[in-house]
Amino acid sequence: MFNKPLFSVVSSKGQTVLPIELRRKINIGQGSTLFYTQLSDNSFMVRVLVEGETISPSLSSGKNKIPSFGLKKTY
């Protein structure tokens, strides 16, 4: 758990900065790939994918199914 609530603001380009506490806790660095899954209208889960992990299209729902692909770290 974190000592304080974590927040970030989304820019006009749709970008946000992940708080350093979060990046350190779950080992997010330059080149990390994040996978988003919508849980409800206003909540979602984010997974940090590891090198070589494959994403199955069955993990994605709706029209925007993602293809399976292998990941490589770029840093």
Please tag this protein with its features.
single chain, 75 residues, mainly beta, globular
The N- to C-terminal Cα distance equals 27 Å
- Unreliable runs, pLDDT <50, ≥5 residues? 62-69
Mean pLDDT, all residues: 78
Count of distinct strands:
2
Which structural category fits the helices and strands?
mainly beta
How would you characterize the largest beta sheet? 2 strands, antiparallel
Categorize the overall geometry: globular
Write a brief structural summary.
It is built from one helix and two strands.
Walk me through what this model shows.
- The protein has 75 residues and is mainly beta.
- It has one helix at 20-25, and strands spanning 33-40, 43-49.
- It is built from 1 helix and 2 strands, in the order H-E-E.
- It has a two-stranded antiparallel sheet.
- Mean pLDDT is 78; it is low at 62-69.
